[in-house]
Structures are given as structure tokens and as C-alpha cells.
Amino acid sequence: MSFTAEIWKENSALFETIRTMPFNQELADGTLSQERFRHYMIQDAHYLVAFGRALAVAAGKADNSDEVAQFSEAARTAIIVERSLHADFMEQFNVSPATFSATPLSPTTHHYCNYLVATSWSASYPVALAALLPCFWIYAEIGRDILARAAKNNPYDAWIATYAGEEFHAAVRGVIQTVDRVASVASAETRRDMHAAYTHAAKLEWMFWDAAYRLEQWAV
């Protein structure tokens, strides 16, 4: 069994919790409120800046030129391509640039961003990749799952199409292959740390969607 097969099996119950959580259930049937989706998009746009930075740091730690290019391009995509989608959604859902700029990171977004950036700087290359993997892989699988059961004329069709699309899934398969490569030559201790990093980030994926559903704000 490959390393990524191991971590997917180990976290299968967590993935099912994410798949069936209210945010994703209502996104699939098109009943998710615009207020909740706006909260999600604003926070996700903030998050992608940190995700791009973490990917760029991982690229700098890569041990071969192909993977430097792979994660440099992933960083570019996170910041430029996906934020273009956000810009379209923000116009559609009446989020002005001023509103976006004035909206701070929620507590969960702040935690997730800082976890990824700190891990990318302080941890080894394999552990950094394991922490970054859930955002790729879980989104791909959620996108595919939602596409299979989405209501017709879903107001969130563009979001679904992005994460269920072949272009995104091809990039995800590439990241999975790289994680398996580095895990195959890693020590037992490093593989243990990779497991822990993946699981922590996967939990933060659940927290991110849940925070949007709750319209999370700072309590003080």
C-alpha cells in the first residue's frame, strides 16, 4: 500500500464527516445561503495567499528541479488562477473590493494559514508536503462527490466545476505522486510526522467549512 493510500484509509472517517457536513450537503443541493457562501469565499481568498506562500516555501525545499517547478506553479495557481474565480464570485455575490479588504481572517482561517506557513518553513520537505496535501486532495474528492449529486441549475455550479474538473484533478494526482515519492525514501520518524501533519490539516479543512457555515467571527 502506498503512503497516500495509508493516510487516506487512516482518515477515511474524517473525510466522510467532511463530505456529509451541512456546508457541503447544502452546497450540493443548492440551498446553501448566499451569506454563508460569501463568508466562505472571502475567507478562502485570504487563505489562498497563505497557501501560495507555503507552496512557494515548499518549492524552495524541493530536492529536484521538477518539484521546484511543480510547487512554484502550484503557488502561482493558488494566488492567480483561483483568486480569479473568487473575483467572479465576489462580483456575483456583491462583495466589493473594499468589503473584502476590510474583512479580517476569521479565527479558523488565521489558525490554518499560520499552521501551513509555519510548517512549510520549520518542517522538513516531506512533512510540509503532507500538510499541504489535504487542501488539494480533499477539495478534489469533495468536488467530484458534489458534482455527482448536485442539483440542476445549482447557483454554485462554477465552484463545483472548478474542483471536479480534470485540470484540477490532474494537478492533484501529481502532488499525490510526489508525496508518495518522498515518503518512499523517508525514515519511519518522518513518515510518522507526515501522517500527523496530514491529519491535522485535514481537520482544519473541516473546521474551515464549519466556520463558514457558522459565519464565524472573533468573539472579542
What does this structure look like?
It is an enzyme of class 3 (hydrolase). Keywords: Hydrolase, Thiamine biosynthesis. By secondary structure, the protein is an all-alpha fold. The chain has one domain: Up-down Bundle (Heme Oxygenase, Chain A). It has helices spanning 3-10, 12-19, 22-29, 34-61, 65-92, 97-102, 107-122, 125-149, 157-164, 166-184, 188-213. Helix 2 packs parallel to helix 11, helix 7 runs antiparallel to helix 11 and helix 8 (125-149) packs across helix 9. The protein is globular. The N and C termini lie far apart (47 Å).
List the keywords.
220 residues; mainly alpha; Heme Oxygenase, Chain A; 11 helices; Thiaminase_II; Haem_Oase-like_multi-hlx
Compact summary:
By secondary structure, the chain is mainly alpha-helical. It is built from eleven helices and no strands. It starts with a helix and ends in a 7-residue tail after the last helix.
Question: Quick one: overall form?
Answer: globular
Reading off the top of the CATH hierarchy, the class is best stated as Mainly Alpha
> Ends: how far apart?
47 Å
Tell me what the CATH architecture is: Up-down Bundle
Order of helices and strands: HHHHHHHHHHH
Query: What amount of the residues lies in strands?
Result: under 5%
Biggest beta sheet attributes = none
Please count the helical segments: 11
Low-confidence stretches: none
**Helices and strands: which structural class?**
mainly alpha
**Proportion of helical residues:** over 70%
Task: Tell me the domain tally.
Answer: 1
CATH-defined fold name: Heme Oxygenase, Chain A
Q: What is the radius of gyration computed over CA atoms, rounded to a whole number of angstroms?
A: 17 Å
Considering the protein shown, what is the CATH homologous superfamily? Heme oxygenase-like
Mean pLDDT: 94
GO cellular component, one term: cytosol
Keywords: Hydrolase, Thiamine biosynthesis
Catalytic activity: thiamine + H2O = 5-(2-hydroxyethyl)-4-methylthiazole + 4-amino-5-hydroxymethyl-2-methylpyrimidine + H(+); 4-amino-5-aminomethyl-2-methylpyrimidine + H2O = 4-amino-5-hydroxymethyl-2-methylpyrimidine + NH4(+)
Function: Catalyzes an amino-pyrimidine hydrolysis reaction at the C5' of the pyrimidine moiety of thiamine compounds, a reaction that is part of a thiamine salvage pathway.
